Amino acid sequence: MRICFFLIFLLSFGVYQGDVASGQQRTQQDRFLLVWAGDADRQQEDFLAVIDVRSGSPTFGHVIATVPVGSKGNEPHHSMTPSQKSVGGDPAPGGLLEFDKRGTLLRRISAQDPQAGDAEISPYGLALKIDVDRMVTTNSGHGWLPSMNKMTDGYTVQLWRVSDLKLLRTMKFPTGPRGDENVAPYEPRFAHARDSQTVFINTVVGSALYVSTDVAAANPKFHLIYDFGKDSAPGYPLLSHDDRYYLQPLTSANKIIVLDVRDPLHPKLISEIRFDRDPVDATQTRVGQPHYLVLDRAERRAGVSNYTLDLPSFVADGDRRLYLLEFDRRTGELRFDQTFRDELTGAVGVDFNREVWLHGKTGAARPHGMIFLP
To answer: What is the pTM of this model?
Structure first.
């Protein structure tokens, strides 16, 4: 199950990373959105859905292809692996898996650290920066096992050397005024500028944002720089390629916020967009709960899915809609693309609560990870 979704995102995320590096290609509009979706009741195969995002196309907003993945009950999620020899997290008992570019497993590397005491080691998020020879993994709690009756919470991040995948240290974040801001470090994002040692990491339970600007130093430090608000549940964030904007879905707060992080230690809120109201008629409520966010190559549009997790010990469902947003790089403002509408209902956003798909009458699905395709 883990290898199935890992390889899908190994391939798709690799396409995105490579294309963004080309300035010429970044000006072109991506044509399709590939969505990793799970069958809602886990009785049918999970699948990939291809959505037409070509503005002006007669099938704009339509699901134009679906591909069952040959298994069910996979809990669609996300993985980030931009290196030739890619590294992914292994949920239990705690460590890394190294793959070559063909997806062949090369080795397992334990994340256990004798110096970490009784801290929970449960790797979740991963980011690496080859030019500073550093990788960061987060130890966030998980609820994958049916025997668990609650989510277990991690408190630490781990720093690694990329060149030999040596674990250098396990660090616990400092807390702030609430006392719990450091709970469950989640998604790390390195600054893109060459030789930058800056990495941002959010906390999914603590609902806060931390940064280190000297992650390759002998004694790096992490600083609490922003409080998203207690129980706002940050989702999958993005950092624009000019390192100016940090875009953060707040699942329980039903919004995405945009921070100006050009001064990494002093971020500024510059815009937000809400998902608990109909994009056309604000008097009409919606469930919302945005979690996963992806930008196209030109960083002019964003895809957002309203689904998080459905595990034995933790459920955060959302309304299972997928939206297309317009992103103004001058101001940092996000707006709903109101022309991106469901082909069946005509409402803004593609609704995955449908009975019939192109591969059959398999019922509602849960959309999560996405990738723009040229």
So the answer is: 0.89
